[in-house]
Amino acid sequence: MLKKMVIFGLLALTMAGCGSPSATDKPESTSSVEIASKYYHQLDKKEQSMVFFTFKAVADDSQDGGKYIVDMKVRNGTKSQLKFDLSKFILSTSNTGTPIKSVKHGDLTIAPMRTKTVTGLFDSATAANFNGVGEFCYLSRDFLLAYSYGADKTAGATTDNLKVASLIVQNKATTQKPSESAVNTQSQAATSAPDSETSQQTSQASTQPTTQQSQASSESVRIVNSAEQAMQIAAPFLNTTVNALRATPVDDGWQVGPKMTYADVIVHYNGRVFSPANPATGQPDHWLN
Q: Fewer CB under 10 Å: which end of the chain, C or N?
């Protein structure tokens, strides 16, 4: 009898051990944290500052007109999966110029802490876009990624150049629009003047454009302080590079033009660019920005 009781006890203990799984036998959890996916314009300012752009321009001799292609490298330093609509990248030249649009389509997706490169994002830029005023943007200037100056150099143009004072000045000068108050003041003065006075003003404007330019320029804050800045501002309007220009001090600014030809413009201290009348072509006096 005692022997049977021992046997039954051992069987009971064995069955109990098999029925209770150990901690190591528990199945592993299959749940994972889902990474948020956001388009660049949906990021807040702090997150946007964690995304780093590099734009590198390369001469494309297979095209006529000295064209460049531009490659873009993006490093996503955020915790979100970052997305871009590739067709929404633009290269702006001024507030009056037509921006160069991306030739790519579809979405670009970059995982957190990863880098991706897009080859040939733009294919119709010229050297002038990298030697003067220009901005790489996403959707609009509200999402400024980098200034285009120096993109054709070895290091390219990066997000870091948004902190360079001289680039800030020259781009602000050509992208800001005249204030409505200034426009309204000029309009009121023109409509309130007597006919004889208006005729006299028109005559003076045609014979002394420099005086009129100086008056308009002196109303704004001086932001252009060197011939170098003046040439950088004028280069896109003259469709050439800074190295091909010369600058001569004149009243309230600089007279800037190509070294070998006469096609000058006046760059005022406030950043506005004036093109004098050209009798050969019949082109009247006019502002370029």
A: N
Distance CA 226, CA 245 (A): 14
Q: Give the residue from 30, 132, 42 showing the smallest Cα distance to 88.
A: 42
Six-digit token string for 275: 């093109």
CA distance 153 to 9: 86
Q: What is the pLDDT of residues 83-134, one digit of tens each?
A: 999 999 999 886 557 899 999 999 999 999 999 999 999 999 999 889 888 9
User: What pTM, to 2 d.p., does this model score?
Assistant: 0.55
Strand partners, 203: none
How many Cβ atoms are within 10 Å of 82's Cβ, its own excluded?
Answer: 26
Q: Distance between CA 123 and CA 116 in Å, rounded?
A: 19
230: left (phi > 0), else alpha (psi -120 to 50), else beta? Answer: alpha
Residue 11 has pLDDT above 50, yes or no: yes
Which domains are delineated in the chain? 38-164 (2.60.40), 204-287 (no CATH)
Cα 134 from chain centroid? 7
Separation CA 231–CA 255 (nearest Å): 9
